[in-house]
């Protein structure tokens, strides 16, 4: 159950539609074919999610034998089919097998669970020990990973543009955090609230990777999906929080369109109002906030973002200004009139977002 009282799971992918659209137009059928099939599969899954929302999502609960504060992971293998969840190949506590993809998925679910619990005192994505299920080897040359409101799903990629989607830990964390948002603020997946939905997942996906690597804010690369792009691609990741708009510049993929500030905000009807594009703005604000504070970004900076996400004041259709205002209020409530408050205010100012005068006050 989320703080807004409405359970509305959405279909959220790591690769934006505009990237797949560009690939689908490639002259080379080796590149265009998998992209077109991925877009078709995404459209189908998105429709299924909407139908599930209408008729009611399957109730999920921790097993009666599950111990509070411990993960309950199950990995399934779709064997390049599309029936979910697939064949169970690893359960909680099972030894690693020979399939590296299965092992990475299992470890990534565990790393995400650990950060939520140890850094924020949250027992799984719903706060009540929800089982973490994931399916690997989904479809044939499927170029995406997604959270469908109930579980994680990973494609193998086409090997030409995208590699295995379990390789980047932040991709696993990103998608699972969509589940956290679903059970808390339940941000509407459109426009600025949708961009915030995507940004929150990028933020905590990056923090999960930093936590796992023991990195400080200054040591982190602040990339989302590093290691996912195949060697032929001119790029380093899907997105950059440090420098939005610079993650890739490729003959086939095109140039990363993310803006870093409101001066570059893109009004568009595609991608649910540009949720994967304009998320670069709050992403960059968090980067500026975290690096101004220094140290471990999941601690003070991450705590402020987590407080806003779970505090019950964030509206489902929140704007950037409203979210920013709530981060100022959260920083003041937790840390007082100290450097955290000053740093978060300056971060939003640098990206051109005017924080609301009062936390929780809806913009007119």
Count the strands?
A: 10
Unreliable stretches covering 5 or more consecutive residues: 1-7, 52-59, 357-364
Number of helices: 10
Main sheet makeup: 6 strands, mixed
Cα(first) to Cα(last) distance is 29 Å
Principal-axis shape equals globular
Strand order of the largest sheet: 1-5-6-4-2-3
Task: Give short descriptive properties of this protein.
disordered N terminus; 10 helices; 364 residues; two-stranded antiparallel ribbon; alpha+beta; disordered C terminus; 6-stranded mixed β-sheet; globular
Summarize the structure.
This protein is an alpha+beta fold and about 375 residues long. It is built from ten helices and ten strands.
How would you describe this protein?
The protein is an alpha+beta fold and 364 residues long. The chain has helices at 17-24, 29-55, 100-120, 169-183, 191-213, 271-274, 280-293, 300-310, 320-335, 339-350, and strands at 12-13, 73-77, 87-91, 132-138, 145-147, 152-155, 223-224, 239-240, 249-250, 254-255. The strands form three sheets. It has a six-stranded mixed sheet, covered by helices on one side. Strands 7-8 form a two-stranded antiparallel sheet. The longest helix has 27 residues, at 29-55.
Task: Give the topology, please.
Blueprint: E1 12-13, H1 17-24, H2 29-55, E2 73-77, E3 87-91, H3 100-120, E4 132-138, E5 145-147, E6 152-155, H4 169-183, H5 191-213, E7 223-224, E8 239-240, E9 249-250, E10 254-255, H6 271-274, H7 280-293, H8 300-310, H9 320-335, H10 339-350
Parallel strand pairs: 2-4, 4-6
Antiparallel strand pairs: 1-5, 2-3, 5-6, 7-8, 9-10
Helix pairs in contact: 1-2, 3-4, 4-5, 5-7, 7-10, 8-9, 9-10
């Amino acid at each position: 159950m989320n703080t807004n009282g409405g359970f509305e799971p959405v279909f959220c992918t790591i690769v934006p539609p505009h990237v797949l659209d560009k690939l689908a137009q490639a002259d080379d059928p080796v590149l265009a074919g998998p992209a077109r099939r991925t877009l078709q599969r995404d459209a189908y899954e998105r429709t299924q999610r909407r139908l599930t929302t209408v008729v009611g999502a399957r109730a999920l609960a921790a097993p009666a034998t599950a111990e509070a504060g411990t993960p309950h992971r199950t990995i399934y293998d779709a064997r390049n089919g599309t029936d979910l969840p697939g064949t169970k190949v690893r359960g909680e506590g099972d030894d690693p097998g020979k399939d590296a993809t299965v092992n990475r998925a299992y470890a990534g679910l565990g790393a995400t669970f650990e950060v939520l619990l140890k850094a924020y005192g949250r027992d799984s994505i719903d706060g009540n020990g929800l089982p973490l299920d994931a399916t690997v080897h989904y479809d044939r040359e499927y170029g995406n990973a997604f959270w469908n409101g109930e579980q994680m799903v990973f494609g193998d990629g086409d090997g030409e543009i995208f590699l295995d989607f379990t390789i980047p830990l932040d991709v696993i964390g990103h998608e699972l955090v969509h589940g956290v948002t679903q059970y808390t603020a339940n941000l509407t997946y459109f426009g600025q609230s949708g961009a915030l939905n995507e940004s929150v997942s990028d933020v905590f996906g990056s923090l999960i990777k930093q936590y796992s690597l023991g990195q400080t804010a200054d040591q982190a690369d602040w990339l989302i999906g590093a290691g996912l792009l195949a060697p032929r691609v001119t790029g380093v990741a899907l997105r950059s929080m440090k420098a939005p708009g610079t993650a890739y510049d490729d003959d086939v993929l095109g140039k990363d369109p993310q803006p870093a500030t409101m001066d570059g905000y893109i009004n568009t009807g595609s991608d649910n109002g540009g949720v994967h594009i304009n998320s670069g703005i709050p992403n960059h604000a968090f980067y500026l906030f975290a690096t101004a504070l220094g140290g471990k970004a999941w601690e003070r900076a991450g705590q402020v973002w987590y407080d806003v996400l779970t505090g019950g004041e964030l509206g489902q259709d929140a704007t950037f200004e409203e979210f920013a205002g709530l981060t100022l209020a959260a920083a003041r409530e937790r840390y007082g009139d100290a450097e955290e408050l000053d740093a978060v205010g300056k971060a939003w100012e640098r990206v051109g977002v005017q924080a609301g005068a009062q936390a929780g006050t809806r913009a007119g």
